[in-house]
């Protein structure tokens, strides 16, 4: 019988700039306002796809956990061995699971380090690595902007004929650099400019999402729903007026209601009670404002513990990134969007050994491949949508990634 692999978690006293710890190769990140988890080194990795990908991911993770002898003196969510994961939007595309050799976590005044293997505690770098960025040239992605507006018009036609209530259509741009693209300067720029978002990196997918699909901790689940968007002007007085108009917009409120309802219905079978606020609040980011609602619930206590994988299977894809009814909207996306989303708009984040975790929806994101990065944005199309305005909204949603490439 093979001997078990040591996994050690211990406290580290100082408050750490998490992103400064990351090495150049294959960084892993889930950081918001300086708190969260970063990881590096690969202990094990795999890819899953197909109808049972969430169950297959759980089975692989549990198999890996059986090979560990864990010594955890810290306890709590995100301590001990951690799985970073980035699921594809479409089940037929590949999702990526990575168990890093080293994880550093920070929450409030508490910091900790976890490492796999019988080596001594890893020494953390005293100063961040330096990176240079090349010059970027932007070009159309899968389809041109005119073609995308035609797709939006087609989606509106489907909605008007009562086939569907809402369809989310995405588009992409390609940025090509004069040199290999490094994830870390992109992450740092995003974290600086959008500190209230979750800054993530898994297997070349980098971004800063404002949308928390799922936080599961000690039997309590939270999901932050965003739907309904308006660009900011940078003028405080004008933006306050725009925020008020967003909060009253029947088109945006309708889009938001579909998204909230889809999340609440997905969580209900797992919860003894749920809390869904009657009206959304306006979430202010640096470039846009969103209608936002935090849905919370207390899990039902059962013999077979509900974990993050169970909830992901029910939650994804939500109306915020797919539409309503979900199955019809998904088929329309497949038929008319004209783009492979890859892991854009899929769940991204981490899951620990107890099944707790934090996973967002991979929005405001880009996929790095060598000297190329493909950046994405999507818009919820409803009966009151206008193709030109949706194009403007998608362009506003691309600003974070475009700006991060010009650090």
UniProtKB/TrEMBL annotation:
Keywords: Isomerase
Pfam short name (any one): Chorismate_bind
Protein name per Swiss-Prot or TrEMBL: isochorismate synthase
Classification lineage: Bacteria, Bacillati, Actinomycetota, Actinomycetes, Candidatus Nanopelagicales
A molecular-function term among this protein's GO annotations: isochorismate synthase activity
Isomerase keyword on record: yes
InterPro entries linked to this entry: ADC_synthase, Chorismate_C, IsoChor_synthase
Superkingdom, natural source: Bacteria
Catalytically driven reaction(s): chorismate = isochorismate
């Amino acid at each position: 019988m093979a001997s078990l692999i040591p996994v050690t978690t211990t406290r580290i006293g100082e408050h750490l700039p998490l992103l400064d710890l990351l090495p150049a190769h294959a960084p892993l990140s889930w950081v918001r306002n300086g708190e969260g988890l970063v990881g590096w080194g690969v202990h094990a990795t795999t890819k899953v796809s197909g109808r049972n990908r969430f169950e297959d991911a759980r089975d692989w993770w549990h198999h890996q956990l059986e090979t560990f002898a864990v010594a955890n003196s810290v306890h709590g969510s995100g301590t001990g061995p951690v799985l970073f994961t980035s699921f594809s939007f479409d089940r037929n595309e590949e999702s990526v699971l990575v168990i890093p050799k080293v994880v550093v976590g920070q929450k409030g005044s508490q910091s900790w380090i976890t490492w796999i293997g019988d080596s001594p505690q890893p020494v953390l770098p005293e100063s961040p690595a330096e990176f240079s960025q090349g010059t970027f040239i932007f070009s159309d992605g899968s389809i041109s902007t005119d073609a995308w507006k035609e797709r939006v018009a087609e989606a509106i036609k489907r909605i008007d004929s009562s086939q569907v209530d809402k369809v989310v259509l995405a588009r992409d741009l390609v940025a090509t650099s004069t040199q290999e693209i490094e994830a870390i300067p992109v992450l740092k720029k995003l974290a600086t400019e959008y500190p209230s978002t979750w800054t993530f990196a898994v297997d070349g997918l980098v971004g800063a999402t404002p949308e928390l699909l799922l936080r599961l901790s000690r039997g309590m689940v939270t999901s932050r729903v965003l739907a309904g968007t308006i660009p900011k002007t940078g003028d405080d007085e004008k933006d306050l007026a725009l925020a008020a108009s967003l909060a009253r917009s029947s088109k945006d409120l309708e889009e938001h209601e579909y998204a909230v309802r889809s999340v609440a219905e997905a969580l209900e079978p797992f919860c003894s009670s749920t809390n869904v606020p009657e009206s959304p609040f306006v979430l202010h980011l640096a470039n846009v404002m969103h209608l936002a609602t935090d849905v919370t619930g207390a899990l039902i206590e059962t013999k077979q513990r509900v974990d993050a994988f169970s909830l992901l299977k029910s939650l994804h894809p939500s109306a915020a990134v797919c539409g309503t009814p979900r199955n019809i909207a998904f088929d329309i996306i497949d038929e008319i969007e004209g783009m492979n989303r890859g892991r854009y708009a899929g769940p991204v984040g981490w899951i620990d050994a107890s099944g707790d975790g934090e996973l967002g929806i991979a929005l405001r994101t880009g996929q790095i491949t060598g000297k190329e990065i493909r950046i994405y944005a999507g818009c919820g199309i409803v009966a009151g949508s206008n193709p030109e305005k949706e194009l403007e909204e998608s362009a506003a949603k691309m600003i974070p990634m475009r700006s991060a490439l010009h650090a």
